[in-house]
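Dissemination and training. As part of the outreach component of the grant, students in the summer workshop were shown how a complex can be specified as a set of sequence lines and then modelled as a single object. The example used during the hands-on session is reproduced here so that future cohorts can follow it. Participants entered these lines:
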Amino acid sequence: MKSNRIKTFLLAGLIVVSGWMLQFSVFASEFVIRDASSKLMGDNFVISADIDYQFSEVALEALENGVPLLVDVHVQVRRKGAWIWEKDVVDRHFQKQIRYLPLSATYQVITQSGSKKTQFISRQAALSALGSIDEYPVVKASDLEKDETYEMEIKTELDIEALPVPLRPKAYMSPDWKLSSEWSQWLLKP
Amino acid sequence: MAFKTLKKIVSSGFLLLLIVITPLLISLHFMSNAVQNTDDMSRYFIPLLIFNIAGLIILLVLIIINLIKLVGQYRRREPGSRLTMRMVLMFISLSLPPVGVVYFYSLQFLHQGIDSWFDVKIDNALDDSLELGKSSLDLNKKQFLRSTEYLLNQIKDDSEAAMTIGLVDLLEQSGATELVLMDLSGRIISSSNINTEKLVPEQLDISVLQQARDSGRVITILPYGDPETLHVMVVLRHAFRPLLMQAVYALSEEISDLTDSVQSALVRYKELSFLRQSLKFNFSMTLLLVLAFSVFAAVWAAFYSARKLVTPISDIAAGTRAVAAGDYGMQLPLQDSHDELSFLVSSFNTMMRRIAQARDEAAQSQRMVEEQKTYLETVLGHLSSGVMVFDSQQRLQTANRAAEMIFDLSFESYLHHSVEELQPLSNVMKQWLESIVLVLTQQKREWREEINIESEQGRLILLTRISPLLDTAGFEKGKVVVFDDVTNLIQAQRNAAWGEVARRLAHEIKNPLTPIQLSAERLRHKYLGKMPEEDSRVLDKATQTIVQQVDAMKAMVNAFSDYAKPSRLETKPLLFDALVTEVMSLYEASGQNEVINLSLNAANVKVEADPVRLRQVILNLVKNALEAVHDKPEQEIMIRTGLQGDDEAGAVVLEVMDNGNGFEEETLSRVFEPYVTTKTKGTGLGLAVVKKIIEEHGGMIAASNRVEGGAHLLVRLPLSKFDTEQKD
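and obtained this result:
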């Protein structure tokens, strides 16, 4: 009798926790990577991608209220068939930020730690610019072995750590802020 | 010591409390930092949140377990459970309301505090400042639009080279920072910048291009240049030609700074306003966790404190039950604290120790008393003296084995019987008690006397000493009577005295007898023939008398000498019946054997004896019997031999009985003493010598009177060991 009660209690707890975890998985992929590719340009392999950043309503509301949103683009190059403990050839992060300027009613996209700022009068244009990765150098061809095949993969997500501190707890717990893409990968033959 | 303390801490649940609560408290502290403006801590918010929730769940589970356990104990009516339940409820009811009130008002203050940051007036002021800024900028925008329209209309040439040259001139005239001419597709035809190092202008955004194409003009403000300042960008479409002009104008430094400042403040304020709910949520959640922690910790503390307080009380209850059940060895666990409860437990333990000590001492005393009693009984049991203890009511309390042997009685069933009840037990007992009963009733210090008792077996002499038995206060509570059977001792002393008398007598008298006899014979020999007949007859008679009397005296002295001198026995195994038969044959010649009735029943039984001495015994006894029946008309003497007991402890018995006058009652007990005789003739040493010889052979002799009249003498001699061994 007593053990049944405990089992029911544990089951209810498990269901609640599972439900809470499920909401993250359902709404996890709001960002979609399209046309990711790489090519050799000079001595460097460069990556180009078109990312569709579909922010949630809550995130867009925050953006309209002056909260800057930072997206992190994570690029990895790894030897094909590498052991799990084998070190990545490349493991790089690119950051891009979008913010709204109310006085001019424009959106600003800042790339690579503020080295480049671009102003957009529409949010759509700004998001397009945010999702445009155009020939970013990733790895030198000389760093890759010719007779090996490599896997290049890219993923992007909203950086919650870059949000204002008061927003972070909510962001960590809400699926509206758990915005990321799936890994997109392809082979690279030096 | 340290290990004991550690063990105590672990067993008390305090360590568990410390393990669960301390990290939780630290974690809550970090979490409160994380929800505030601490960038470093905020990244640990989720781990901290999970940790805290997990900690609170553990705490809750522990509380539930404790609660279930307590309810179970309460239902089973276990000792201390009611008090624990009451204290837990009291602690919870005391701690919950204040915590709840603090939580409620804290939440209120928090929300109101956060809301108070965002005043409606400030909102309006900021909106107004935004509008004002926009209006100010719009004026500049209009001015720059007109200027750009003018510049665009100045483009007359069709060739790109001419346009480029003209554009440089226009840049100088207009005061713009940058001028760019492009076609409708956005391809740059010509550009000019006041910064000559910047040869290629920025690519126009496609949306701006599209808007410019569609609406004819786009005016926007953007940061531009290095260092960045606010600029106005105008993109204008030519009215008639497929041309677009992008003109960038620098705002005045003052307007740029002010606009920047207003925009920053506005963005910050809007951001904060937007984060208001998040802030409330964060603080509320942290406060809720703190509340949950406080409540759980308080409930836990309630359980812990209640148990801590109730444990010693339950222990004492269990201890009192143990005492009631007779278990005095129980020691309650001491608490670390030094409060009244600890003092109570300590006092209880001390009391238990003392009770146990007293019990042990009592048991030891009892053991010692029993040992003493056993010791005393052993000593008393092995004493040759008889010991009897009477209480103040003259009731028998104790009698030792020697007493039983002396009286030939068993006192086991007569303990606590009075003197009057003991008297009928035997004649000896009666006489003895009559002699001492007065002393027993008197308060006398010491009393000592030889008591002569006449019994069927002869006279018994008991040397009796009576001492008062005092208790610890010195009061008399009875009497101790110690007595010895000194009959044999006195008899031996008497015999020894007689022996000495006889020896001296023999020595003193025998010596002059021979000269007297010789002198008498010489007188007779010398003067008998020479004296007249009358005189010689007198002399003859006188000398005859002297010689006869001297012989008689010699015989008497020899008899004394025999009695007195130490024996030199030459023993050998003898067939007893054969010896008796041999002695009896001596009487055949005189015809005396006709009155003797011989019954021999100890055939083939041997005794270890000196044949001469034993023969003397038989002769003496038969002679005495013959003398006793001498004047009787019907003379009858019975001599009977027999075997008594088994081979090992057995004896040969010789009984000589006659139908004479028997012994006189007053001399019966002393018939074996020298000079005790009922005959007119004789030395009075016959039976004394017989007794001496018998005793020298390890035997005994007893004399009594027969019921039908006459004497009865009983001789008992041990069997020959040699004979017994041979039989084996």
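Chain A touches chain B at residues 2, 61-62, 65-67, 100-104, 106, 117-122, 124-125, 129, 161, 164-170, 172-173 (CB under 8 Å). Students were then asked to discuss how this feature might be tested experimentally.
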